[in-house]
Amino acid sequence: MDSKAPHPQAGPLIRPHNFIDGRWTPGHDGQGFAVTDPATGLLIAEVPDSGPQDARAAVDAAAKALPLWRARLPRERAALLRRWHALILEREEDLAALISLEQGKPMAEARGEVAYGASYVAWFADEANRIYGDIIPDQQRGKRMTAIKEPIGVVAAITPWNFPLAMIARKIAPALAAGCTVVAKPAEDTPLTALALALLGQEAGFPNGVLNMVTASRARAAETVDAWLQDGRVRKISFTGSTPVGKHLARESAATLKKLSLELGGNAPFLVFEDAQLEAAVDGVMAAKFRNGGQTCVCPNRVYVQSTVYDRFARLLRDKVAALRVGPGSDPATHVGPMINARAVDKIARHVDDARRHGATVLAGGKRLEALGPNYYAPTVLGDANASMALCAEETFGPVVPLFRFDDEAQAVAAANDTPFGLAAYFYSQDLRRIERVSRALESGIVGINEGALASEAAPFGGIKESGYGREGSRYGLDDYLSIKYLCQGGLA
């Protein structure tokens, strides 16, 4: 099939242009880049390869729209967010098909992502009406002190490819609820879902300039985002992605002292103690690890199993993983779809090959599935993993479960914490005293206790150490888009 022909699954929500000041526009210099289907390599669409002029135009629009948007009553902003939420749910099937097409995840997971992303819009529509301040108790007669919360200003949102709807929705929704305006750059691999969200926002009635999106290739992303970093009108950066890029954003935004929310890399441990319900622990690994083919920042990267139950756990997990069906996301029978691109598969293969050289045993998978296409890798379980392996220190971001043995609780906790990252951690135990000890001892922003599915719009999501700072979701998630103003009024006596 001609790679330049329209993709046979291209849907009605595709808008291959930037969205700036309420208008769909090509890039300033006319350059573009291809968005392809990771399952087949076929072209889906070509979108603008934007540069600094496009980025500045987006900020011009957001800055112009800010005064009127922040002046709207919270319930008026909430009404528009609810309308947007309703449109997202109304177009659930089209959005899910687009997510599956450009990102590769199975349709069932894509539908789940639409519902998950929409839940943030609904949550922050409600939270818009709960931006409370404080009356500070009188300290002197005739003087009243209050603290109020105000929108921080123009927000730049930069999102990854693994959840192209949910990640951008959970940044845009609180920003708009708080009264901020937004400029956004979705990931170069999956921009079409974000642009579809902008289209639905336009249909919902967001005023021109309140929400703006520009697309850029990997080659031009740095110069495009740097225009926002250097612009004093952009008061906040919200970024989800790698730790090196997060550190660059922190350094380069220092000149204008922007507020940052950084949700960065992870290296999540998963501890299975001998008193755990092993079948439940296996189910927990399956839910946490193989969602999106292992391409999530909270996927378990290191699974530590107590020696007394290691062999039984390994057999149970091996059998479950071997039964997973790999294929294109459009196939209803698929459990695990393609990886996002060839670079991702190369990294997975490199980690597995390195683990073999350092003594790992392949219990399941451990190979590319080239008959399906270049971006497929078999769901894999590796036994006898150890700390000398690259996958112990580096996030694999693929369907690979390495199993490490441990003897006692102190050893397991020390190994779990032996990483510069601290996003998510998991452990399974039925001992209530151990649950209390381990949950406090794990150095992580999120801890799953006898549970592999952590995500919720009502919970604060974020990490510590080199996994970043700031929180998304929950009532805490709105605070990152607000500044506190102290008002002191005298002459009242």
From TrEMBL:
<dbReference type="InterPro" id="IPR016163">
    <property type="entry name" value="Ald_DH_C"/>
</dbReference>
<keyword id="KW-0560">Oxidoreductase</keyword>
<comment type="similarity">
    <text>Belongs to the aldehyde dehydrogenase family.</text>
</comment>
<dbReference type="InterPro" id="IPR050740">
    <property type="entry name" value="Aldehyde_DH_Superfamily"/>
</dbReference>
<dbReference type="InterPro" id="IPR016161">
    <property type="entry name" value="Ald_DH/histidinol_DH"/>
</dbReference>
<dbReference type="InterPro" id="IPR016160">
    <property type="entry name" value="Ald_DH_CS_CYS"/>
</dbReference>
<dbReference type="GO" id="GO:0004777">
    <property type="term" value="F:succinate-semialdehyde dehydrogenase (NAD+) activity"/>
</dbReference>
<dbReference type="InterPro" id="IPR016162">
    <property type="entry name" value="Ald_DH_N"/>
</dbReference>
<dbReference type="Pfam" id="PF00171">
    <property type="entry name" value="Aldedh"/>
</dbReference>
<protein>
    <submittedName>
        <fullName>Succinate-semialdehyde dehydrogenase (NADP(+))</fullName>
    </submittedName>
</protein>
<dbReference type="InterPro" id="IPR015590">
    <property type="entry name" value="Aldehyde_DH_dom"/>
</dbReference>
<feature type="active site">
    <location>
        <position position="263"/>
    </location>
</feature>
<dbReference type="InterPro" id="IPR029510">
    <property type="entry name" value="Ald_DH_CS_GLU"/>
</dbReference>
<dbReference type="GO" id="GO:0009450">
    <property type="term" value="P:gamma-aminobutyric acid catabolic process"/>
</dbReference>
<feature type="domain" description="Aldehyde dehydrogenase">
    <location>
        <begin position="24"/>
        <end position="486"/>
    </location>
</feature>
